[in-house]
Amino acid sequence: MKLFIHFIAISAGLIISTVAQNAPQCTGPLSVRKEINSLSSSEISQIKDVFLKMKSAGWWDWFTAIHVQNYSSLHSTPEFLPWHRRYTRDVEQTIQSYIPSFAMPYFDASAVCADPASSIIFRPDYFGGNGDQETKCISSGIAAGWIMDSSNSCIKREFNQGNRISSWQCPENVMSDIQTSKTFGDFSYNLELGIHGSVHNAIGGDMSSNASPNDFIFFLHHSNIDRLWLKWQNLNPSAKYQYTDYKGNPSDINGKLTLYDTPIIDSFDVGYGFNCYTYDESSTGTMTRTGLLNQKKNGNSDSITEKNLINFLDSQDLQKFFPDLVSNKPIINAPLMSKSMSPNSNTNTTSSKSTGNENIAGNIPTKDFKFNSTISLKTETSAVIAQNKTQGSSGGLKYPIPTRLTDGFLRMMGYDIPKYREYYQKQVDLANLLNSKGYVSPYL
User: Fold this and answer.
1) Which residues contact 158 (CB under 8 A, 6 or more apart)?
2) CA atoms of 433 and 314, how far apart (whole Å)
3) What does UniProt give as the signal peptide span (predicted)?
4) In the predicted model, is pLDDT for residue 279 greater than 60?
5) Which of 17, 123, 292, 443 is the most buried (most CB within 10 A)?
């Protein structure tokens, strides 16, 4: 089976390399990714039906196996963002072979930072809640009762605070990461250590293992991570293609993307080549304050946050945490689609329609296709992941302190622990500053 996987991967890679090397601009309507709260009940029902068909066809085992096999190359490395952009797009196009109008939703996790478990995604009619206390298996949601062939196990979740999830990064934290990261390497690592790692670690179970794609929340989460990268790219056009690691060491942007045999630079542009999608302009659908809800209808929620920060913080504090607000640079409301041509693209165009055979998954499976993987999914046990659990100190504070990642999770991901400590201290400092100034987030 390993040989079979390897053969298909190589074959698919050869197909890709002949059609995406020049990253032509997409033509026709782009797939528009929406925040999960924006989906209608009929859209959720349609997704559920297709997921069952894809499970029967073996797609979820397939995509999990791809992630597991290449895990060490994809995290704590410069490939983190470009690889997951391509991988998420692969899954999106596979689903489009069943539902042509499908666009991968995103989960704006920061919008529910104070009480993540209250998110709509954990409702029984969406993706279900916490796992069973003993087995950790989810018992509600779209994938309730599933057994993954590749691991011969259920889909597991283990919230980091019983049936609750402790606080993670709020929109202001994410905004600060976007504004203070002036190189690709800085932004990629800050994002990976921040809201990316927090969501994986806090939901627990499969999400805190290398088999995290078992849980479809993985793809909602990475769709949002990709959205945040696109925001940063459009705010920092001069640094967009400066491909470095977090230490500033240059990497080869024209090198091959792991598994795909396509230039890494081809994953840097949304609206070109394989990436025929965009995002809606709304930031979230889960605001709780009445005034913000009213403003959000007009698309002004992020500008309210900017104005609040300017009113509460002096220029020195703004320069440290929100430097672009000092220069009056538009932050969150920057367009998600750049109108300028990519330096790696030509004047050719490509259809935004899925052809069904351009992704690493290969051809669309027939109804008889089965993927009975013999791959052993080597995951961190829940006991290892759970060690040194910490809680964000949101009790009594207007602005919550994000929860620290566990040592077990940091080691599993191969993160630079001193670098993480530095990053986390900045998150704590920001929360303490906002609380000392009496700041009240419009998102809480």
Assistant:
1) 130, 131, 136, 204, 205, 208, 382, 385, 386
2) 11
3) 1-20
4) yes
5) 443
Q: How far apart are CA 432 and CA 426, in angstroms?
A: 10
Q: What angle do CA 4, 7, 12 make, to 5 degrees?
A: 125
Please name which of 168, 59, 53, 39 lies closest in space to residue 106, comparing C-alpha atoms. Answer: 39
Instruction: Name 278's bridge partners.
Output: 32
- pTM comes to 0.82
Q: What is the pLDDT of residues 148-191, one digit of tens each?
A: 887 889 999 999 999 999 999 999 999 999 999 999 999 999 99
Measured in residues, the chain has a length of 444
* Rg of the chain in Å (alpha carbons): 21
CB 126 within 8 A of CB 44: yes
Specify the DSSP element, H or E, that contains 56: helix 41-57
Q: Which two tokens stand for residue 4?
A: 């079979």
Tokens of 357: 């055979």
Q: Is residue 202 a contact partner of residue 215, using CB atoms and an 8 Å limit?
A: no
* Cβ–Cβ under 8 Å, residues 216 and 162: no
Give the position of tokens 């409702």.
123
